[in-house]
Backbone:
């Protein structure tokens, strides 16, 4: 089952290399994901203008060895956990929040009440907290083109980058059905 997780850092003269911190985080999560899955890390990364979304360059991050999942037991393919990446930013009248989905997680990480076990939640939360502390990363909100003829009219705005200040793992299982979840 292929998947992708996208992470952004602030534009700066020196672009921070997220790969080592990402590898540490995913390695911590490996025990809650059933065996047979592998996280790989990019050999090149794009640099975008946060206001327009235009590609303005690329850089080569440090090479990282892939991380293999190590969880044992069965799993329900569409069920997993979610990390909500919290910011203090507001864009378009809404709080800017990013999400990373960890799907699937092993069946042993659920409780008889139908929620994620506290042990699994702690494993994911601790790794996410460490990642937030280790690197400045954030949530990028795409620019919106004005469309005054739309009902209601759509006001245009530039893109925005907001730094992540905290991570939160919910006790509820998630099912990623579309890009909009």
Residues:
């Amino acid at each position: 089952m292929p998947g992708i997780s996208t992470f952004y850092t602030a534009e700066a003269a020196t672009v921070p290399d997220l790969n080592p911190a990402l590898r540490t985080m995913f390695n911590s999560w490996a025990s809650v994901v059933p065996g047979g899955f592998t996280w790989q890390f990019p050999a090149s990364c794009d640099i975008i203008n946060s206001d327009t979304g235009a590609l303005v360059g690329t850089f080569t991050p440090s090479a990282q060895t892939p991380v293999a999942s190590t969880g044992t037991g069965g799993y329900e393919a569409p069920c997993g956990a979610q990390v909500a990446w919290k910011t203090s930013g507001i864009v378009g009248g809404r709080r800017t929040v990013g999400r990373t989905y960890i799907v699937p997680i092993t069946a042993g990480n659920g409780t008889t009440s139908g929620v994620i076990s506290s042990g699994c939640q702690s494993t994911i939360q601790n790794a996410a907290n460490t990642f937030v502390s280790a690197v400045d990363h954030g949530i990028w909100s795409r620019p919106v083109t004005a469309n005054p003829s739309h009902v209601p009219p759509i006001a245009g705005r530039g893109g925005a980058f907001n730094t992540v200040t905290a991570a939160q793992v919910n006790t509820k299982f998630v099912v990623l059905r579309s890009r909009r979840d």
